[in-house]
Design a protein that fits this description.
With 190 residues, the chain is mainly alpha-helical. It contains nine helices and two strands, in the order ββααααααααα.
Length: 190
């Protein structure tokens, strides 16, 4: 089976984006595009942690509820969450109700709040040099030396749920690496 496909609009896309319109829209407008800003990157870090063990489509479907439940992922606001907020989140059917992941998101906000020079600068300092785009899905790694180093640094600073695989998924989603396949119409090098 091809890892890329020509869709009804005549564009070739990465194979993973074919199964739903939500995936297609995410692929075309967000995934792999450089993202900056502490709150924006904090949101992606939290969502990648919530995705651990689940399908990404589950997280995309629940993203509006996550944003509402987590104060739009504003670091300062999430850092203030207490026990009542955790219980509120555990009762919210619109999000993934996993106590460890919820507690990690709150704890990560507190770490990010005190981070100098900031989450954006820290995360992007681990972005590897540009490399050729992968030819096939099998050429896309699950972890890299950079994601291992990023996960190690984040853990050292007190972040939770940020292993090397989650760190690499974060790097992909936020454009630190370009893992759109070589023939995909999305060209971030322009």
């Amino acid at each position: 089976m091809s890892v890329e496909a020509v869709m009804d609009d005549g564009k070739v896309r990465c194979g993973w984006s074919q199964s739903s319109q939500l995936y297609r829209d995410y692929h075309d407008t967000e995934w792999g595009r450089p993202l900056h800003g502490d709150d924006a990157l904090f949101e992606r870090m939290c969502l990648e942690a919530f995705q651990s063990g689940l399908s990404w489509i589950t997280i995309l479907r629940k993203r509006p509820a996550f944003r509402a439940a987590f104060a739009e992922f504003t670091i300062e606001r999430v850092a203030e969450f207490g026990d009542d907020d955790v219980e509120r989140l555990l009762a919210d059917p619109g999000i993934v109700r996993n106590r460890a992941k919820i507690l990690a998101c709150v704890a990560n906000a507190r770490v990010a709040l005190d981070l100098s020079p900031g989450l954006d600068e820290l995360l992007w300092s681990f972005a590897p040099p540009a490399r050729p785009r992968p030819r096939a899905l099998s050429d896309v790694p699950a972890v890299t030396p950079e994601s291992v180093a990023l996960a190690r640094e984040l853990k050292k600073r007190g972040f939770r749920f940020v292993g090397p695989t989650t760190a690499y998924a974060l790097m992909q989603a936020t454009g630190m690496v370009d893992d759109h396949l070589a023939d995909c119409w999305v060209d971030l090098r322009r």
